[in-house]
Amino acid sequence: MLARPALRSPAAQRRGILAALGSFLLIAWAAAPAATARAEGRVTTSAAMEERLATFAGVPGFAVETIGESVEGIPIRAVVAIPRARMAVRHRVLLVGAQHGDEHAGKEAILNLLGDLAAGDLLLPPGVELHAIPMANPDGVDADRRRNAAGFDLNRDHALLSQPETRALHAYAARVRPTVVVDCHEFTRDSGSYADRGWGEWPLIMLDGANSPLLPGGVLELGLGWVEAAVEPMAEAGFAYQRYLVGGPPPENEIRPSTLDADDARNGLSFFGGLGFIIESGVKRSAGDPQADLPERVAAYRVLLDRFVTDTERLEETRATLARLHAEPLGETIVTNALWARTEPGAVPYPVVDLASGETVRVPALRFATERVIKGQATKPAGYAVPAAHAEAWADLLAAHAVPFERLEEPRSVSAEATELVRVEEAYDPVHDRYGGRQVVAGIPAAEVTLDVGSLLVDLAALPDPLTRRRAVAVLEPRQLYGLSQWPRWRAMIGDDRLSPVLRVMAE
């Protein structure tokens, strides 16, 4: 069993991960360990995956089920593998591949892992049950396209749940309740912003955990423990690895972890009780054959995925910590705006690959921002209400998120705060490096409101557990910087008075 450091503060973990970056500086851009992918560079389509899944028929401990259909009607499959050593299941590990249809390495690594388990080349530890959805976006995979057939980015749909693929994922996670969820992606390693400077991005593969401030305190640190624990084994395997960071090249561009919002799978699925992760491997999309190094990317993926499946000590630690964190009540305030920042001056040496020499060099990053900072909050309400005129759409969404609600059978008076949508800022904010879709809102003081018959009421205190309350807040809170009104369907519910249809109920 791998030794693990004690769980440390985010700042201490950041220092450890940054220090580890320096240990890889001799890894060249073209270096590649032996390929282990059965695909040998071939990308698996939905039809080819069906053939591979058929080979699992009759394998002891394997089951394949259909959990939904894509926009074009292709089945979305889940594979369940249970350990040969029979004992009570303590951990369910859920792996999700190809939400973005043109990001193939995660899907191939999951299929590769399942093949090893079926062949007996890898054994699940006692008490660990593997759940794998290798191809969450089969329409996108077959078209080698990021989005689904409806043109939607599925990894921005985990709050909206407007697409059949994301609804299938959430329904499955709600039923399985995994200890960890790993969402598999790829990034462009030879992006133009780096190439224009004669550089390539250094990491071959990156990992990060759930980070939404609406999740319990401690979840961010728990995920960083997994990220840091993989540094040594990834170095031993010869892979350039770091925490998942986004942004432009140093020195002047911001480099930070990715979104803090609940609309991606890593964060969105974490509201069902597990600890969400995202893996990103690097594709050289400008290459003549972007999949030429697919076996190397799959091999790097396998080191990380195998750890999630086999590290029972860390799984046990994660389960115990989550049980404690999820029992904690909501605080008296709700975070509505958070961002990544840096609270200490100084540049951080950041590795890039010099394309001319193939060597890795360090460039001072002046805007290296990895500390989560709270920028805005709202007082926690007693609950939320949606008037009858908009009840059907909201009832459907709440049901998809497994949030119980009351539909009023007679009028009811409540004290509630309204929220005015001042504007939605669609453009990227280059000053603060914020995505478009920002809701600028103004709170209106509480007043007596009569809810009509058919209105929806979500009483936070009446919900079954703190995590369900957090899930309700993530969906309903109208004062979030990136709330549902950034999307046209939900913004259309706002009338000439500019008021959100969701009321913040302060008292009944």
From TrEMBL:
Cite the active-site annotation: 280
Supply the InterPro entries for this chain: Peptidase_M14 (IPR000834)
> Which parts of the sequence belong to the Peptidase M14 domain?
42-312
CDD domains associated with the record: M14-like
Domain of life of the organism in this record?
Answer: Bacteria
Q: What is this protein called?
A: Peptidase M14 domain-containing protein
Q: Name one Pfam family in it.
A: Peptidase_M14
Indicate the secretion signal residues. 1-34
Q: Which UniProt keywords apply?
A: Signal
- Per its record, what are the GO molecular function terms? metallocarboxypeptidase activity; zinc ion binding
- List, in alphabetical order, the GO biological process terms annotated in this UniProt record: proteolysis
Q: What is the lineage of its organism?
A: Bacteria, Pseudomonadati, Planctomycetota, Phycisphaerae, Phycisphaerales
Protein's UniProt keywords contain Ligase: no
Q: Which family does the entry's similarity section mention?
A: Belongs to the peptidase M14 family.
State the organism of origin: Phycisphaera mikurensis (strain NBRC 102666 / KCTC 22515 / FYK2301M01)
